[in-house]
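Q: Here's a chain of 253 amino acids. Please give me its 3D structure as tokens.
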Amino acid sequence: MTPVPAMTPDGVPEGLPPSDGLAPFVAEFRQATDKRPVLRRVIEALRPPGTTAALEIGPGAEPLFTPPPWGWRYVVNDISPDALARLGPGYEPFHADICGDVSAHAGRFDLIFSCHVAEHLDDGLAFYRNQFLLLKPGGRFVRLHPVLFAPPFAANLLLPDRLGRWTVQTLLPHRRAQRSVWPARYRWCTALRREEARRRAVGFRHVACIVGYHHHYVRHVPLLAPLNERLCDAFTAADLRPMAAYCLWLGVK
């Protein structure tokens, strides 16, 4: 079993300053089925003082915060110009492949965050290198993604794209309304210790990972739902990191 990251006395994963006030979110994230509300609160807690510009990567036309909650620039990056064209007022579109050349925007952002984007990218190294490039010194990133070895995501990787898409939309009917479903690749999307070393090698001064074990993919399947809950509870009690369902990555440039 992969070792659990050391904790500071107030329960924050070692590697991020405890003054960021993340301790209350650690236990909540580990147990929550819907991680997005926790992610929003962590972003609010982690954004640097004096922030003037934030970048959200890959939300399409549905940013994580609606409407924009802050009095500074909220930039939305996506590879789809059609999605960016549907953004509401208050957002600044940034059309680019986040794994491509973004050097024209180097050092522009105090905060970068994304939700369920990293697992769809083909080049995890380029993704993190570009975030490092885009951040100002002292800037921070917050990243939520599923973990490859969790049963639903391992199955998603192994199934052909069309069958995987059908399975997700069958288990989660609300996903049928999505305009597009991107294939999942899970590059750099494990909870293994090597992932922290990879991110530090990019140049980030502080890196930490909070893991959560619960997911909602079989909640509508009568026979599987209670079994899945017991399995997730067992993973949580053992803190079996390779079997985590989600990672919440935090880092400081």
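Q: Can you summarize the key feature?
A: The radius of gyration is 18 Å.
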